[in-house]
Design brief:
3 domains; 0% strand; mainly alpha; 64% helix; 181 residues
Length: 181
């Protein structure tokens, strides 16, 4: 490959990388992805249609959009069943959960929001639940915390890990005088 071609690839990759950095993909990672995509795309380039830089910019832009959607999150989607984004539609709900799983894998989870979703009408039960969450949060090992928080958000995790977390939560609560039923 010629030096001029390599310089063009580097120039386009450096332009696009800041726009597509997300999660654990920083700008350098995106640039590396661009290099790989560009090397594969060079075969499709036809110099009679336009410049290499324009071709690579368009091609890499589309490829990076696909990478972002595949690895991170789709903002907008149209349901084939209800035609929109209906909260009552089971298809929309399943799709939304799948996308949230991808998004949560790449974003840190703030522990402050955990107790906000589990309140019921009885104030004394709310206090008890809050106390239980505090005990679990203080005593749950760091290796289990991310999956535990995903479980609280309603995100499905593998059964083996779910069973391990549930067992550890029961142990923690029993150590603190709660009976598990």
């Amino acid at each position: 490959m010629e030096d001029k071609t390599i310089q063009t690839i580097m120039k386009v990759a450096e332009k696009l990388a800041p726009q597509y950095a997300f999660g654990y993909y920083d700008e350098e990672d995106i640039e590396q992805e661009c290099y790989i995509m560009a090397i594969n795309a060079i075969e499709k380039y036809d110099s009679s249609i336009g410049s290499l830089e324009n071709f690579l910019y368009t091609h890499l832009n589309y490829k990076l959009q696909n990478l972002w959607r595949k690895k991170y999150y789709r903002r907008n989607f149209e349901c084939k069943i209800c035609g929109g984004n209906d909260p009552e539609c089971s298809s929309c709900d399943r799709r939304r959960r799948r996308f949230l799983v991808k998004k949560h894998l790449l974003e840190p989870i703030d522990i402050q929001h955990v107790t906000q979703n589990y309140y019921i009408d009885n104030p004394s039960k709310n206090l008890e639940l809050e106390e239980i969450f505090i005990i679990i949060n203080k005593n749950l090992e760091i290796e289990l915390r991310a999956d535990y928080l995903r479980m609280l958000d309603g995100i499905t995790i593998p059964k083996v890990r779910r069973t391990m977390i549930e067992g550890r939560v029961v142990e923690i609560l029993e150590e603190h005088g709660y009976e598990y039923k």
